[in-house]
Amino acid sequence: MVVFDVLRATTTMAAALAAGVKEIRVFEDVESARKAAGEFGRGSLLCGEVGCLPPPGFDLGNSPGGFAPVHAGRTVFMGTTNGTRAIVAANRAKVLLTGAIVNAAAITKQLVHRGLDVLLLCAGTNGRVAMEDVVGAGAVIAQVRKRADCELASDAARMAASLFEALQGDLQRVLTEAQGGRNVIAAGLQADVEFAARLNMLDVVGVVRGGVVRRMC
Amino acid sequence: MVVFDVLRATTTMAAALAAGVKEIRVFEDVESARKAAGEFGRGSLLCGEVGCLPPPGFDLGNSPGGFAPVHAGRTVFMGTTNGTRAIVAANRAKVLLTGAIVNAAAITKQLVHRGLDVLLLCAGTNGRVAMEDVVGAGAVIAQVRKRADCELASDAARMAASLFEALQGDLQRVLTEAQGGRNVIAAGLQADVEFAARLNMLDVVGVVRGGVVRRMC
After folding, report:
1. What is the ipTM for the molecules in this complex?
2. pTM (whole model) above 0.90
C-alpha cells in the first residue's frame, strides 16, 4: 500500500528523508508527538501542524522546505491534524510506503520491482477527497503503466491516471487551485505548495513499520 | 441536486422522456416495480434490470435504445439493482433532476437559469465511484462554467470538470473502458454504452417528485 498526503505530510516526509534524518516517528496528533519527543530527549526533532502552522514549542512545522542536511541523523517526531492519521490507520498493510508527487518516480521504481498488487490510499482532508492526493496517485499509476503491464482494478485508479496525464504540464496551478493548496497558501505557506508540486524531484521512498518511517535502502 | 447514473438508469430515463412517455415511476428494486405495474394495469410499461438484463416478464430492460415514440404517453415502472436506488435515496432534495452525458447541456441550461447552489450526486456502483458518472457531472460543471460565474465548492467538482475537459474528445472510449461499460458490454449491450456516451444529444431534463420522474416543461 502507498499512502498519499501530498499537502503536506508525505511530501514533508520525503523531504526529511532526503535531508538524511534517521527516522520519522508518526503520531495521530500533535500532543502525542510532543510527549514522545520529550521522553526521547536530546536528538529529537519535533515537527507537525495544527491549522497548517507549527504548534508552540515545535522545532519545525509541516513544511517540506524546513528540512535541510543539518538535520541528518536526527529522530523526527511528527504529529498533524490529518495526514499522519492515515498512516497510523494503514499500519496493518503488509508493506506501507509514503508517496507524493515529489517522489512518484521513486515509488514507481519500487512497485515495478516488487510486482505486487498495490492499493494507493489518498488521505484526503476531513473525510473529503483531496485533488493533490489523487493527482499524486495518478502520477504513480501513469508511470507504472509506462514501465510494466498492469491492470487498473477500479474506476478510481483510471480517473487518477487520466487526471494526472491531463494535468501534469501544470501541477503548480493544480495544487494552487485545490482546496488544500488554498488552505496552505492562506496560512502564508505558498512555498510548500510549490515544493509539493515538483514531480519526481526526490529519489527517496519512505517505508513505514510500526509507526516509524525510514528511508528504503 | 442532480443525480447521475450514466450507465444506465439516468440515460435511459432521458431516452424514455425524449420518446414521450408520460412519467417514470422509480422503485428501489425490480420486484416493487413489478408489483406496482401489475396494480396499475393497462398502459403500464415495466422496465428494469438485474445483472444488466431485463428480468423475466418485463416489457423492456434498462436500455436507452429500447424506448421509441411508440411508447409515448405510457407510464413507466422502473426498478434496477443500483441506479434507481440513488434516486430514491435523494428524494429529500428540494429540486431533484436526473442527469447524464446525453442531456448534460439541457441540465446545464436549467442550472444556469435557476442560479442555485447545486450538488451533483454520482450514483456509482455497489458503493464504488463510477467513472462515467463523474465524467457526466464534469460535463455539466464544465458547461455551466462556460455560461456563468460559478464557484467549485470541492476538489471532487474540480476533478470532475478537469476529467471531462481532458476526455470529452473520446467519450466512447472512456465509457468502454470504465468498469460499468465493461459490465454492460459483457452482457452483450454495447449499443447502450455507445448511446450513453453521446454528449448533449437529448434536449430533455427529468425532474423527480415523490419518486416519479417527469419531463420538465
Report:
1. 0.92
2. yes
